[in-house]
């Protein structure tokens, strides 16, 4: 890219970045310098979104800017970490001022809401892709992990599932129904950051649902070396997803569709009342959807009968 193009990108991304305590040196040198406060650990995550694979090429760039950051904040939430810093690598087919302006607006509006500072970046010319790395802070030894679930623990999800999956079917023209809540879930997911932080010391294990409940709960079960039975009837659903299931008798959507970014977490049974009141305080329609068991594997019951999945999860070309 030419020097002029770099200046343009710089104007959209490097100058509006919020200041944050602990940023010794931000954008402008070879590296950023960050000060991790005593007693805290750094939680680090990175995600790449590729045009045509993770988002539709014609998606609104403002929503894409939101989503690129939201998926990373969701990973920090899953660990119980507080968002602190991020770096952004953009690969762009061309330098389109209107696109960059909208993308950066969506990005910074979410970043400022969670007090996360952009401290570095890189730009290259090529097919559109966005790589975002996020760093969060968590008190030493208190991060939530996938490996802590024990037989008898209750399994919770923080909100409705299958909404983004149905939104994607709408955007792809696979259904004639249109529903703003489903499209919103797909294009503007809300990372459950406050819940993640409040689950420290309460949840025994946690994961965010990026690839569908069956796949992501499956990761948690393997890491914890346990199994579980899910009650499909307790999974929170937005009304258009309930109607879709009723009309098609296809139960896969809330179990295997990706991109919902709700948290799935486990809690010892004696903490159920505390979790229910936390969800209420945060106004999240989360529910207990199952129980951890000793027998390995994931079993699913609906109306008292076992159901079998026709596929096990959204798989971005097996990258995850
Ligand atoms: Mg994750």
Structure description:
Helices cover 33% and strands 26% of the residues. It is an alpha+beta fold and 320 residues long. Strands 8-10-7-11-9-12-13 form a seven-stranded mixed β-sheet, with helices on both faces. The chain has a four-stranded mixed β-sheet with strand order 3-6-4-5. Strand 12 and strand 13 (305-306) form a beta hairpin. The longest helix has 18 residues, at 61-78. Bound molecules: magnesium ion. The site of magnesium ion has 4 residues, from helix 2. Residues 75, 78, 208, 210 line the site of magnesium ion (MG).
Concise summary:
With 320 residues, this protein is of the alpha+beta class. The protein has ten helices and 13 strands. Helix 2 packs parallel to helix 3 (97-113) and helix 4 crosses helix 5.
Cofactors and ligands: magnesium ion
Q: What's the main sheet like? A: 7 strands, mixed
Strand order of the largest sheet: 8-10-7-11-9-12-13
SSE order in H/E notation? Answer: HEEEHEHEEEHHHEHEHHEHEEE
The radius of gyration computed from the alpha-carbon positions, rounded to a whole number of angstroms, is: 20 Å
The helix content, as a percent range, equals: 25-40%
How many angstroms separate the termini?
A: 31 Å
Give the tally of β-strands. Answer: 13
3D shape:
globular
Total of DSSP H or I helical runs spanning 4+ residues: 10
What is the average of the pLDDT values? 92
Low-confidence stretches: 314-320
Secondary structure category: alpha+beta
- Estimate what percentage of residues fall within beta strands: 25-35%
